[in-house]
Amino acid sequence: MDVILLQLLNGLDKGGAYALIALGLTLIFGTLGVVNFAHGALFMLGAFCAVSFNALLGLEVVTVDETQTTAWGTPLEVRTPYVEAYLGDFGAWILNYSVPVSILIAIPVMLLVGFVMERGLIKHFYKRAHADQILVTFGLAIVLQEIIKSIYGANPIPQAAPVAVRGAADIGALFGFDPGVIVYPYWRMVYLAFAGVMIAGVFAFLQFTTFGMVVRAGMADRDTVGLLGINIERRFTIVFAIAAVVAGLAGVMYTPILPPDYHMGMDFLVLSFVVVVVGGMGSLSGAVLAGFLLGILQSFASMNEVKAIFPGIDQIIIYLVAVIVLLVRPRGLMGRKGVMEN
């Protein structure tokens, strides 16, 4: 029972990342009809917003302490981050919480990236075949990936979680297990809660705001909404930018769990696209459900007991489920009738 609970928790935080990326993918497909293979790159760009912000905060001012000397008898050089030197305790707090604080930087950056991407490239492929959309967005993803590689290098760049949440919680004790049997990192719980808030926020935005209602109407019947005199194109551009922000913030908060590198976006994109297909192209609820479901299944498939019986099952379980779902229900678990069924 303790192993099952631990794997369930591991699957939930991984599923949260899948769900957030898949949610953005589904928003774009449902509104614009575009299959965006560059969406994983947006996840990566968000992660490197956190890396850049942390590097900026880490810039140091060098002072000389005449009262102390080195082993060679020279005055001791003291290196202090600029933000701490000029802002004192508040600067130290910002440095400690650089990952969550970098959300404030990532939001305008990802909004701008999403706007430029949609206006500069995606809009020209609205009426093109999905194959053309996949090729051009996949090419864009490779370009962004290589740009990041040229700037930050090929090696992963670890990002520290705030000191207050670097440990692990004894989850098992809450359920009556022996102490120390089930421990779970605090930051993974933070990420799971963050994913839940983001998902709830997107659904609330679409469900309870006038803007969201128009977008949902446009997803159902774009031509009719246009005939009502509503500038649906402008709203869809904003939706694309919002989807970029969702992916970017998912990347920001995932950095303490997985050190960012230049190909992390591609790694998550393939899995998240499978999540979208399993959940149902165009179905927001399906994307979230499939994200958590496949994250949990992948977590259980990674257990040593399971891999001893089915070697390598953890690498193919998501694709295996996708094949089964598409054979039985081509439109996905919660997809609209007629989508991907021809």
From TrEMBL:
<feature type="transmembrane region" description="Helical">
    <location>
        <begin position="189"/>
        <end position="215"/>
    </location>
</feature>
<keyword id="KW-1133">Transmembrane helix</keyword>
<feature type="transmembrane region" description="Helical">
    <location>
        <begin position="236"/>
        <end position="257"/>
    </location>
</feature>
<keyword id="KW-0472">Membrane</keyword>
<dbReference type="Pfam" id="PF02653">
    <property type="entry name" value="BPD_transp_2"/>
</dbReference>
<dbReference type="GO" id="GO:0006865">
    <property type="term" value="P:amino acid transport"/>
</dbReference>
<dbReference type="InterPro" id="IPR001851">
    <property type="entry name" value="ABC_transp_permease"/>
</dbReference>
<feature type="transmembrane region" description="Helical">
    <location>
        <begin position="129"/>
        <end position="148"/>
    </location>
</feature>
<protein>
    <submittedName>
        <fullName>LIV-I protein H</fullName>
    </submittedName>
</protein>
<feature type="transmembrane region" description="Helical">
    <location>
        <begin position="269"/>
        <end position="296"/>
    </location>
</feature>
<feature type="transmembrane region" description="Helical">
    <location>
        <begin position="15"/>
        <end position="35"/>
    </location>
</feature>
<feature type="transmembrane region" description="Helical">
    <location>
        <begin position="97"/>
        <end position="117"/>
    </location>
</feature>
<dbReference type="GO" id="GO:0022857">
    <property type="term" value="F:transmembrane transporter activity"/>
</dbReference>
<keyword id="KW-1003">Cell membrane</keyword>
<keyword id="KW-0813">Transport</keyword>
<feature type="transmembrane region" description="Helical">
    <location>
        <begin position="42"/>
        <end position="62"/>
    </location>
</feature>
<keyword id="KW-0812">Transmembrane</keyword>
<dbReference type="InterPro" id="IPR052157">
    <property type="entry name" value="BCAA_transport_permease"/>
</dbReference>
<dbReference type="GO" id="GO:0005886">
    <property type="term" value="C:plasma membrane"/>
</dbReference>
<feature type="transmembrane region" description="Helical">
    <location>
        <begin position="308"/>
        <end position="328"/>
    </location>
</feature>
<comment type="similarity">
    <text>Belongs to the binding-protein-dependent transport system permease family. LivHM subfamily.</text>
</comment>
<keyword id="KW-0029">Amino-acid transport</keyword>
